[in-house]
Amino acid sequence: MGGDYLAGPQGLLRSINARAVLAVVDREGPLGRPEITRATGLSKTTVAQALRELIARDVVDEAGIDTARRGPAATLYRIAPRCAFGLGVDIGHLRVRVAVVDATGEVLARAEAPAPRRDAAALADTVTALASECAGRAGIGVAAVGQAVIGVPAIVGRDGRTIRRAYGLPRGGKGLVDAIARDLPMPLLLENDVNLAAVAEQRFGACADVGDFVLLGVGVGLGAGIVLGGRLHRGFAGGAGEVGFLPHPATELGTEVLGARRIAEQARAAGIAGRPSPRELFERARGGDEKALAVVDATARRIAHVAASIALVIEPELFVLGGAVGANADLLLGRVRHHLAKDAGPLPIRVIASGVPDDAVLRGAAWLARHHARERAFAAATGAPPQDAGPGGRPYDTDSAG
Amino acid sequence: MGGDYLAGPQGLLRSINARAVLAVVDREGPLGRPEITRATGLSKTTVAQALRELIARDVVDEAGIDTARRGPAATLYRIAPRCAFGLGVDIGHLRVRVAVVDATGEVLARAEAPAPRRDAAALADTVTALASECAGRAGIGVAAVGQAVIGVPAIVGRDGRTIRRAYGLPRGGKGLVDAIARDLPMPLLLENDVNLAAVAEQRFGACADVGDFVLLGVGVGLGAGIVLGGRLHRGFAGGAGEVGFLPHPATELGTEVLGARRIAEQARAAGIAGRPSPRELFERARGGDEKALAVVDATARRIAHVAASIALVIEPELFVLGGAVGANADLLLGRVRHHLAKDAGPLPIRVIASGVPDDAVLRGAAWLARHHARERAFAAATGAPPQDAGPGGRPYDTDSAG
DNA sequence: ACCCTGAGTAGGAAAGTTTCCGACCTACTC
DNA sequence: GAGTAGGTCGGAAACTTTCCTACTCAGGGT
Asked: Which chain A residues are within 8 Å of B241, Cβ to Cβ?
């Protein structure tokens, strides 16, 4: 019949207040009751009641005492680290990485292995084996994990299950989720790898307080992770950020502007013999090799070109350079800025280096998994009010409205 | 100190419930109490109490009785049409249009006049004079209007006051708002004209239930109104959607891809003598003129090019063709689709014609003004809970967090 | 053809329950 | 001794349930 209008009995108020207490404790770290009282504006009595309830439901913990002030020692409360666990997976072109984190985001275990490139079943087995291993090392059963998020180099549908255009996955990723889901009991969510890198940037990097930014993932291909209003923007069918195919004067339509293949091509064009990897090319450029530097500059120019196009459409506050190639910020950043300033459109554009040098995709996946697992635990503990206290609104609800 | 976590005393619950009742009444039109009770899930008593309060504060009205069922006649309730008024203004290149609407969105008065093109003061005077006239004809004082929204062909900052890159305004729009604000008592908000056309499309056109869409405004210039998650996306400094400057193979960087000037240029290139207006060109094309048709096709190709680029960045569900030139959907739509299908990127792209043929900018401005005026009235009447029941989340808060 | 009765609905009032808050009290530490 | 943490109790606010009255239509009896 009608939609939900958030109206209800007094119980709703209790839920809301419990949620508020939870949010304060989550954000401000271990906190004494008086501080929670001040931060929420609730009365002492109500805070005490809410905490009793939250502790009984195992989402809040006592974490020592605070003797800093005079008077009796204040009990400190925190989110119970073991109230929810998340499993992050990064299925890369070469390796599979897995991490298990607790509710605080602490990494309890991490493991990786080479990625089977041809055999979908073997890939799925690798994932589940690593997951079991990590769960074991974390001292929990796999069943205790509340959510898994799997990063893949592909376009992922809004349902978090469908894979499209997966170049680096066996059989185009067909059946991958189902195969993994058969062996892992918790809810599964797929996500584009660059999107997860953007999440990592937002949570651990330089974009903590930036509402709108774009992570340019320069690696095997070129992709953009777009965060608008503090939330990932995936597009209608998960295809947002496929900026590798943006038109470029020197490139045919329908081909990628930039990526490992393009860089190799430009290396040949610059007269570089052999087939040096991008990594080696950047190394040589660092050594002063003129030809390698020319390739670096061409790469920077194309990055700038793509950033300018994106800026004209959504004008983010900030661009972040990420990905395996983008990690060479020492060489790229200045040149990208130079080209942006040169043929600048109507708007000034800020570009910075990634603040998450290692494991960005994995860390983003783990963060997202933890987030969902926690939300579920919190909702169950407080009576499921749809409130959500992230900076800049509700983050990341992979809303499948169907 | 801390942020707001939406926690509070029982009074909060009353606010929330009043707000829910208001939202139901707003969405479902005139409604009897029993239906409100069902839709909100609240008890009869509470609904009665809320309605008493809302009526006392003049935001809700009795609107006749319902004798359809047997039993005693049920009183019907609705949003009081006179609880808030909005003033919409469209400052175009040639004419200024103004409309006054009531809380239901009904247009109470509309007026227009030629736009003074050189004199900023005269332009401001035109606006205020038309506003006074409309308010008079609507039977209210200008002071009764709760919000004005002014559409301008320019980039508008997030504060809704600053104007940048206003080609069609005297003195680049400098001082325009202040001059108008001196004579109009209500809060003023500027907005980009294409953005307002997008709002109109969302509210009156074909995009009522589409969360993510892009309105391509093809007129004197080319701009995009971007709606993501049901909300306008303005960009960091209001510059989102400046897609007229997207790179195009046949165009130099920093120049516009499309617009009246480009079309004239292409007409010359096609060997058309004289300087026919775009309108005339499309007329001739309709008559079968080969050269004019060539120009139309070239225009369509460029529109397709821009749409494809936008789709690669944000992948909206839908593109809508609007603006004075875009209104020639009979000629353009098929050709745009053709070109999109031809050099399609990885994603299928839907394009439709605008569903708001007339006064799109004005209607969008009026809608937005009404929206803000109403929100303010509702907040005052219910005790200002930050809830907001639009389809797909909170719409259009011009959040100036400063 | 007219009237009476029963069922279903709208609206209101009283009693009961849940929840929050303020005030008071105790215990603890500097 | 002063200031703080934590607990308890009575009061106020808000919602719900239950009961009650009044009204209208439908159907059957006279």
From this structure: 313
Structure confidence by residue, pLDDT tens digits, B367-395: 999 999 999 999 999 986 544 433 333 34
- Does the CA dihedral B368-B373-B374-B376 come out positive or negative? positive
Task: Sort out which chain B residues have CB atoms less than 8 A from A13's CB and list them.
Answer: 10, 12-13
Chosen for mutation from B5, B339, B350 (greatest number of chain A CBs closer than 10 Å) is: B5
Asked if A205 and A361 touch (Cβ cutoff 8 Å), the reply is no
Hey, is the C-beta of B341 within 8 angstroms of any chain A C-beta?
no
Contacts 24+ apart (CB under 8 A), B167-176: B167/B220, B167/B221, B168/B92, B168/B93, B168/B117, B168/B220, B169/B91, B169/B120, B169/B123, B170/B116, B170/B117, B170/B118, B170/B119, B170/B120, B170/B122, B170/B123, B171/B120, B173/B120, B174/B120, B175/B120, B176/B120, B176/B123, B176/B124, B176/B152
pLDDT tens-digit profile of A53-104? Answer: 999 999 999 998 988 788 899 999 999 999 999 999 999 999 999 999 999 9
Query: Which nucleotides of strand D lie under 7 Å from a protein CB?
Result: 2-10, 12-18, 22-26
Q: How far apart are CA B132 and CA A170, in angstroms?
A: 68
> What is the secondary structure of A182-245 as a DSSP string?
HH--S-EEEEEHHHHHHHHHHHHSS-TT-SSEEEEEESSSEEEEEEETTEE---TTS-TT-GGG
**A243 touches B at CB < 8 Å:** yes
Q: Which spans in B104-175 are helix H?
A: 120-138
The pLDDT score that the predictor gives to residue A6 is 73
Give the bases of strand C that a protein CB approaches within 7 Å. 7-15, 17-23, 27-30
Q: pLDDT band at residue A262, thresholds of 50, 70 and 90? A: confident
A290 versus A257: which is more confidently predicted? A290
- Which of B24, B224, B254 is closest, CB to CB, to A5? B24
Task: Name the region of B119 (left: φ>0; alpha: ψ -120 to 50; beta: rest).
Answer: beta
Q: Which of A2-16, A112-126, A198-212 has the lowest mean pLDDT?
A: A2-16
Provide the token pair at A319: 């661009």
Q: Is B237 helix (H, G, I), strand (E, B) or coil?
A: coil
Closest alpha carbon to B99 in B83, B113, B88, B91: B88
Footprint of strand C on the protein (CB under 7 A): A 10-11, 13-14, 17, 41-46, 49-50, 67, 70-73; B 8-10, 32-34, 44-45, 48, 69-75
Q: Is A179 in a helix, a strand, or coil?
A: helix
* Domains with residue ranges and CATH for chain A: 10-79 (1.10.10.10), 84-197+359-377 (3.30.420.40), 206-353 (3.30.420.40)
Q: How many CB atoms lie within 10 A of CB A285?
A: 22
Structure tokens at B221: 């210039």
How many separate helices (H) and strands (E) can be counted in chain A?
12, 15
Of B12, B20, B243, the CB nearest to A5: B20
Token pair, residue A268, equals: 């040949």
Residue range A335-358: mean pLDDT, rounded: 87
The widest CA-to-CA distance across chain B, in whole angstroms, is 77
Sort out which chain A residues have CB atoms less than 8 A from B17's CB and list them. 7-8
The length of chain B, given as a count of residues: 402
